[in-house]
Amino acid sequence: MTMTLIDQGVRNVANFRRKLKTCLEINTATESKEKSQLEELELFTKYYQLWKGNNVQNNNTYYSIPKFYCQLPLEEEILLQKVREEARALFLQRRSRVLLGNEELQHLWFLLDKHHTPPLVADEQMINYHDFLKVAEQAGSKCKSFFTATIFGKLYQNENYGRIPIMQFFNYVMRKVWLHQTRIGLSLYDVTGLGYLKETDLENYILELIPTLPRNSQLHTWIIKGGYRLNILERSFYSFYVCTAVRKFFFFLDPMRTGKIKILDILACGFLDNLLELRDEELSKEMQESNWFSAPSALRVYGQYLNLDKDHNGMLSKEELSRYGTGTLTDVFLDRIFQECLTYDGEMDYKTYLDFVLALENRKEPQSLQYLFRILDVQQKGYLDTFSLNYFYRAIQEQMKRHKQEPILFEDVRDEIFDMVKPKEPFKITLQDLIHSGKGDTVLSILIDLNDFWTYENREYIVLDGSKEEDEIYKI
């Protein structure tokens, strides 16, 4: 008994010594770590002051954070708003003064023509870098930014004599000047001054742009000639035209529906080019009809809207919209349109209709695929599965039966869709899968429109018939 107590006491003492040793080691490690951190901080402070000098200690500004954010004036702060607007206007004026004017551009062309480097290449004047610098010296300070080695290198296309085309360089300069001018013009409508335009801002810009577009100045004449029989004055159509034009910008540049678009995105997208090319009075009829911003195109869309509006209440019901196009859109798809899109008492206004038209007329574009994908994603899972595909395809089968056609099995269509898209995750088609496959427009079309499904299903016969017709034409 005594020996047992002694052994137990010895073990307790041994355990205590081990624990004490461990604690001492931990404390020592902690102290050494803290000591090394202090030494590191002292060395950093020493060398920082050595390299920066003693101004760090003597100058009080080093101990306060400078103001880098200024809050926008509130609505009731009218004076501050006026001051801010005036400051922005002066800034934009200064920016516009450094741009090349017409006379300066003409002078630049004269210098390029004078100092071109022979020989000509297919009647096109060229210039080497040496003469390029000569022009830079005489062109003036406003042109200095264009005469750099970087720009010359960008335009150089491995020409035998190390030259670039004069016309190509001049077009580059004019394009840059136009972009800066347009950016300044758009910035004048940027009420907040934060680099983006709201819907009302862009509407004001386009409204004031209409008189400068000869092709759109006679909207009333186009209405009469187009046969739409719209008993309205020319200016009364402006609001519908502006709405039609603005919707394209916002549909493609604001897919997340934030209600604003960056000015840089507007400049980069190319829509302004399409809009401003209407200033060309010699623009062909075909070019006008294919240009969304032209009067004929706007009147076509608006005329379709009026033709669909049978009860003339200015809105479209589901039944009225069902006659859109070939009238073969499925009821299930139309139901989803009215569930997901903004409606008023179950009816669609002109602005919502424009989004609908833009999506269906540009189905290959990612923004259109996003619009249609949201409609087809019934369960809002972020992907289309077998249930989603079957949900919409059943409506196609019903339409086929209605037209006394033999419906195709869903399993066959499902397998073909998955083969076309090849989704990353089996049997789950995401929006990115549709975009990357390059077949997104086909997949969505055959699920929402009987006519598109029939066209796809009979594509081989259509191609054969087309080739036969061509052969007959050549024989004639």
TrEMBL record:
Q: Which UniProt keywords apply?
A: Calcium, Cytoplasm
PROSITE patterns listed in its UniProt record: EF_HAND_1
Keyword Cytoplasm included in the entry's annotation: yes
Q: Which GO terms describe its cellular component?
A: centrosome; cytoplasm; spindle
The UniProt entry, under Gene3D superfamilies, shows: EF-hand
Q: Which domain of life is it from?
A: Eukaryota
Q: Does the keyword Transmembrane helix apply?
A: no
Task: Enumerate the Gene Ontology biological process terms.
Answer: cortical cytoskeleton organization; microtubule cytoskeleton organization; regulation of dephosphorylation
Regions crossing the membrane: none
Coiled-coil portions:
none
Compartments where located: Cytoplasm
What is this protein's record name? Serine/threonine-protein phosphatase 2A regulatory subunit B'' subunit gamma isoform X1
Originating organism: Octopus sinensis (East Asian common octopus)
